[in-house]
Write a structure and sequence with these properties.
213 residues; Growth Hormone, Chain: A
Length: 213
């Protein structure tokens, strides 16, 4: 019977990703509703067509920018610095959305798009670096990691959605900011668990192990 265990750094990445997905899906659940809600109810009073156009642009850029963020991390920054940069930008972005102002609203979306580009591709790449080549635990490690995505998304939609619709839109955006900020603080304060993983760009065939569990 194998006594191998997952590195404890996996659970750091699990919870960091969980809080990021909490903020991302929590905010996304509110965005269109906030745009089309009546001005008297705290929304912007946009038409469905206008809201759909902005939402499409936002989600499109969210899926494009990881190509740039992944390249910069892989060639210059390292995964760890890219993840922290992305998390900080997204926390600021959610915070900007929580302010009732159109300039900060657009600024918030821009920060979220850029931050997502740095964060999204690089934290999952760090999961792979936790395991030596050929490790039988790697696949199950990714399974555990992706559970964090599902948990964060589920509670983000529930909590941010409830606060946004029942109390005030900007309270929902504020909850997303708190979630992302918590993920950033968690990752920064416990990054020692990662050892040398993600500190600088590494060759594909180079193995950098984290501390064993």
């Amino acid at each position: 019977m194998s006594t191998q265990k997952h590195p404890k750094a996996l659970y750091l990445l699990f919870f960091t990703e969980m809080w990021e997905r909490f903020s991302y899906y929590g905010m996304r659940a509110l965005l269109v509703l906030y745009l089309v809600s009546e001005v008297g109810k705290g929304g912007l009073g946009w038409t469905s067509a206008q809201a759909g156009h902005l939402y499409g642009l936002y989600t499109g850029f969210v899926y494009v920018t990881p190509l740039i963020g992944g390249y910069l991390a892989d060639k210059f920054l390292g995964f760890r610095y890219a993840v922290m940069t992305g998390a900080a930008l997204m926390a600021l972005g959610h915070g900007a959305l929580a302010i009732e102002s159109m300039p900060t609203f657009y600024l918030g979306l821009i920060l979220l798009v850029i931050g997502n580009g740095f964060f999204k591709p690089n934290i999952s790449s760090m999961v792979g670096q936790l395991y030596p080549k050929g490790s039988p635990l790697k696949d199950s490690g990714y399974t555990i990691f992706y559970m964090g995505i599902n948990i964060g998304a589920f509670f983000g939609i529930l909590i941010c959605g409830y606060l946004g619709e029942k109390i005030g839109w900007h309270y929902g955006f504020g909850a997303a900011c708190i979630g992302m900020s918590f993920g950033l603080v968690l990752f920064y304060s416990l990054q020692y668990m990662l050892g040398e993983v993600g500190l600088k760009p590494v060759k594909v065939d180079k193995v950098v192990e984290a501390q064993p569990y």
